[in-house]
Amino acid sequence: MPKITLNGKSIEVADGITIIEAYKQLDEPIAHYCWHPGLTIAGVCRLCVVEIEGNPRLQIACNTVVQDGMVVNNNSEKVKTAVKWGLDFHLINHPLDCPICDQAGECELQNQYMEFGKYDPEMAEHKVKKRKVVDLGERIVLDTERCILCSRCVRFTNEVSKTNELGIFNRGDRSEVGTFEDKPLNNKYSVNTVDICPVGALTSKDFRFRQRVWYLKDKPSICTGCSTGCSVNVYYNEEGIFRLKPRFNKDVNGYWMCDEGRDIYKHINKENRMVRGRYKKDGAWCSTLPLETAKKAGEKLRTYSADQIAVLVTGQYTNEELDVFVNYAVNKLGTKNIFHWKNNPDGWNEFDGLLLRGDKNPNSKGLQKVLQKHTVGGEWKDLVNQIDKFKAVVVAGPENLQAYPDLKEKIGTLARLECVVWATADDNIAFEGLMDFTYLIPQKTSVEKSGHFTNYNGLEQKVDVVTTLLSDSLNLEETVELLVGESVDMSQREKEDMHVMKKNYFTTERGRL
Amino acid sequence: MEIKLLTEHYDKKEFRFIEGYKKLGGYETLKKAFSLKPEEIINEVKASGLRGRGGAGFPTGVKWSFLPQNGEKRYLLCNADEGEPGTFKDRLMMERAPHQLIEGMIISAYAINSPKSYIYVRGEYNYPIKVLEKALQEAYDAGYLGKNILGSGFDHDMDIYRGAGAYICGEETGMISSLEGKKGQPKLKPPFPAIKGYLGQPTIVNNVETLAAVKYIIRDGAEAYRKYGTEKSAGTKLFSVSGNVNKPGTYEVPLGYPLMDLINNECGGMKNGAKLKAVIPGGSSAPILTAEEVQKTTMDYECLAQMGSMLGSGAVIVMDDSNCMVDMLKVTLHFYHHESCGQCTPCREGTGWIHKIVSSIVNGEGRLQDIDLLEKIAQQMMGRTICALSDAAAMPTLGFITKFKDEFEFFVREGRSKVKEVRAHA
Amino acid sequence: MFKLSDEGINFVKKELARYETKRSAIIPCLYRVQKENDGWVSPESVSYLSELMELPEAWINEVLNFYTMFNKKPVGKLHVQVCNNISCCMLGARELTDHLCKTFNVKPEEISEDGKITISKVECLGSCDTAPMMQINDDYHENLTPGSAEKIIKGMLNGN
User: Fold this and answer.
1) H/E segment holding residue B241
2) Superfamily, domain C78-159
3) Searching chain C, which residue's CA lies closest to the CA of residue A169?
4) Number of domains chain A contains
5) CATH of the domain spanning C6-66, picked from 3.40.1210.10, 3.90.1150.10, 3.40.50.300, 1.10.10.1590
6) Chain A: residue nearest B376 by CA?
7) N or C terminus: which one in chain C shows less Cβ crowding within 10 Å?
């Protein structure tokens, strides 16, 4: 393990790492744009310059491997001046359109200028004009004038997605990033280029102009879009969730996530949710508080004998919830007729080689484990084969209904039963197809509860409450308690809501300062 | 006095074809080389003191000895992407002595144990490429290339790659990128090409003149070669002289040759008897020398370094006193602005910025602080980038503005040239 | 739709096999396309080449836009490239360029109305001892005066 000195501080680092990695390890500030730990080294922004004792020339930290005894600094006047000018070189042709740029607030040009800038612009010539608002397909907008040509996005499409759509065309200060003839950048991982773009050159169509970033908070969570279970940060405020971004996890997703996963926040937001509990009586829907619906459903279920009840469950709940739920089915309802509903049994094992999997549930592995524990668990087709013997079904339905394209068809089958009790986070027009004695019990989503998901690889990952969007909705454990006739104390909810409200209020206020 | 080693047979048309070349002793040195061990050749080249003739002046034998001893396939690339403004010596060499280059390359390839070489020629050199293609075919037909050359057991294939118009491909790693089918953008060092070059394999890149000189070092021995030149600048060098002289052209003189002698003897003195104003001694990247400095200049690596300039590619641009230095800097900077590959920010942005500032001055819109600003920018462009193009733009800028400051100040103050009317061109 | 001739397609196939990697064939193949497409490389020909070579369009487009010898827009039958670098400028290259543009009524880098001529200013062509000089299509013309250059071009235009 080489010992080196950075800015006067001694540090022991792993063999073969670069100086910039040592700076990161020490949490010492160092300017950089092109370096990204998930990509190859480009060494072109020339901002991470450091002075190495015994070397008269400044070196770039990203392409210099540490050697035992190295004495390095980036706080001498020589380095500071080089960085100041380096930043000015980046800025001389960069448009001053921060007020209308969606990157403002999380722009590395802004951030690093604040820290390392020259504060004395001397550019008096005309700036180079380049193309703005270039439409790059479903998800991305490009502003070539704002681009600082760090080449991160190009390296991403060459090295990670291996789709090779992006290039930097022309040369010198006429260089422009883009796709050939503005063809769409519609690969399955395209929005990562937006994440790694240090400036406002690549912006996400889904997110741009919807919220200034300083009005957002973020908390860690796990993407529930498929069984890979990518680590993410969820960006939200009191209006809801605005976006997901990947969070580094060397064991799961590295620095990246897929575009599909980024969309899951949409089903979490209020507009798609089952807000009130609902049950159908005499052909009409009655609306109640979620807990009332659950109580009523429990009463109805108790009128059936064990062998009349089937249970259908999806891998969209936490291990803790599934444990309670399956235990309830086996020991309270007394049934062994428990069936695993999969989104897409044929493509269940599909994998694109990077992150995307055919199993669109965050916790199929966890569910399988619970089912094995009780030696229960059939497939959907098993349920269909014996459907005539059942009178009632309890469904722990998918949180993300979009991932279950056969929802309507399945509902058509279940509607043949006398009673359907369905725990669901989202609302959907397909529920209209259910008959009397249907109970729809609003559930919390993955960002509103704590627990664990077990990914495809058996890795158990914790999720914590990010925010509460619907304080009345229940988790599956609470649902089970209500189904068996126990009471749930909802008085805590008020507090939880208030707590969140206060925090968000504070964030909003701070942003307005 | 010219010493004609590499240029001895330039005027003989038959030297361009294999029969004539052989008649004049061609490919005899190759036979000699095969009687030596590769290390012996490397040592001979080291002992000769030969330094790269493309511009950087790095000792050739030392460069070769950087190759890792790991059995990896090695490539030899001949840098014939002659693009430094003022330079045309390699073009003449390819046109008039193609076999001399090919022979030098086979010897060098044998020395470094490389089975494959490319001659990367700038795309504009259409005619030299044709000459080389023919010569290469002749060499293959005569058994100097291919399998088991002259029964030596050494195999070597050689090919020509035509560039497509980019100065930066003359930088050795830019050339490698280009040969790999990419933009000719220089690569980060380390690793150096000798360790990881073309397609990640150990690669040696040498200039046309360097590789041709290897032939003469092996033919005559290092000691004979060292007789020419100075201790640190051994051998002869081809100088491309252009500008306001009576007989511009390529001249081969021993290194250490006085610049004034080159101008007065070889080049027949100043055109129309005009007064010498300045000389750019090593291609447009080399800082300019004033007439006064020229008097003391000898054409070798150490003297020019001492003068704050460089020998570079040996392109000597001679200027008489009708030239406006502000205008000349503008022309020079247009080139670097146009040729910056765009990769490193200080160069991409800096070349454009200083070009714009000097253009503003020429347009009569200069501000007094612009001269200081040019200096500040140039200082920050030096030593900050992957390759030397940024320095190549900054160094002449500093040279022009320090040595001819009065002309710049006059232009800013008066809005016109101190020397002559600089017209706006279409 | 642009298509290479059979001979051109064979050329591409040979170049793809000639070098250690397919990518190295991009430059030679772009030359071929330019030759068969009236002296310039159109976007559709890039897509065509991408398919033929099985290489991403972005890679080909990067190369196309990096090197100056590939024309990204139509050029005249005579592509006159006058060196405007330092040695040539010292000896009147700019005046020469102005003269030619005026004589042939065309702006630099633009194609004449009849499509017969384009006059470009280019960087050093490595013929500084014979300054000023120009390249017309593949050939160098050296030691020019405005008059001699005009005469050369007129001769070629008439010869066409």
Assistant:
1) strand B236-243
2) Glutaredoxin (3.40.30.10)
3) C62
4) 3
5) 1.10.10.1590
6) A85
7) N
- Cα angle B245, B248, B250; round to 5: 145
Give how far B90 is from chain C: nearest CA, Å. 9
Here the CATH number for the domain that contains residue A438 is: 3.40.50.740
CA distance C144 to chain A (A): 31
Show residues of chain A in contact with C65, CB under 8 Å. 169-171
Q: Distances from the Cα of A447 to the Cαs of A177, A365, A387, A469, B180, in angstroms?
A: 36, 20, 34, 9, 49
Distance CA(A424)–CA(A276), nearest Å, equals 11
Distance CA(A398)–CA(A430), nearest Å, equals 13
**Contact state of B183 with A171 under an 8 Å Cβ cutoff:** yes
Rounded-to-integer distance, Cα A46 and Cα A35, Å: 10
Sorted by where each starts, the structural domains of chain B and their CATH numbers stand as 13-226 (3.40.50.11540), 236-320 (3.10.20.600), 325-414 (1.20.1440.230)
What is the end-to-end Cα distance of chain B in Å, rounded? 43
- Whether the Cβ atoms of residue C30 and residue C2 lie closer than 8 Å to each other: no
Average pLDDT over residues A176-200: 97
Interface probe for A, chosen from B185, B195, B345, B362 (most Cβ of A below 10 Å), is B345
| A283 φψ region: left (φ > 0), alpha (ψ -120 to 50), beta (else) | left
**Cis peptide bond N-terminal to A2, omega within 30:** no
Chains that touch B (3 or more CB pairs under 8 A): A, C
Nearest CA-CA distance, residue A348 and chain C, Å: 31
The model's pTM: 0.95
Question: If you measure CA to CA, which chain C residue comes closest to B185?
Answer: C66
CB contact (8 A) between residue B181 and residue C70: no
Report the residue of chain A nearest B347, measured CA to CA.
A172
**pLDDT one-digit tens code per residue, B390-411:** 999 999 999 999 999 999 999 9
Domain parsing of chain C, residue ranges: 6-66, 78-159
Give the pLDDT confidence of A29-86 residue by residue, as tens digits: 999 999 999 999 999 999 999 999 999 999 999 999 999 999 999 999 999 999 999 9
Residue A261 CA to residue A231 CA, distance in Å, equals 11
Chain B contact for A170 (CB, 8 A cutoff):
yes
State which H helix or E strand residue B99 sits in. Answer: helix B98-111
Q: Do A41 and B344 touch (CB under 8 A)?
A: no
User: Does A233 contact B at CB distance below 8 Å?
Assistant: no
Q: Which residues of A touch C61 (CB under 8 A)?
A: 167, 169, 180-181
Q: What is the ipTM of this complex?
A: 0.96
Question: Cβ–Cβ of A165/C58 closer than 8 Å?
Answer: yes
| Residues paired with residue B243 on neighbouring β-strands, in sequence order | B318
Residue to mutate among B338, B339, B349, with most A CBs inside 10 A, is B349
CA-based nearest distance C42→chain A, Å: 11
DSSP-assigned letter for residue B40: H
Mutate: best of A125, A150, A169, partner B, most B CBs <10 A: A125
Q: Residue C123 is encoded by which pair of tokens?
A: 């960087």
**Phi then psi for A330, rounded to 5 degrees?**
-75, -45
Instruction: Return per-residue pLDDT of chain C as tens, 160 residues.
Output: 899 999 999 999 999 999 999 999 999 999 999 999 999 999 999 999 999 999 999 999 999 999 999 999 999 999 999 999 999 999 999 999 999 999 999 999 999 999 999 999 999 999 999 999 999 999 999 999 999 999 999 999 998 5
What number of helices (H) and strands (E) belong to chain A? 14, 23
Backbone φ, ψ for residue B279 (5° rounding) = -135, 135
Neighbours of chain A (3+ CB pairs under 8 A): B, C
| Residue C108 region by backbone torsions, left for phi larger than 0, else alpha for psi between -120 and 50, else beta | beta
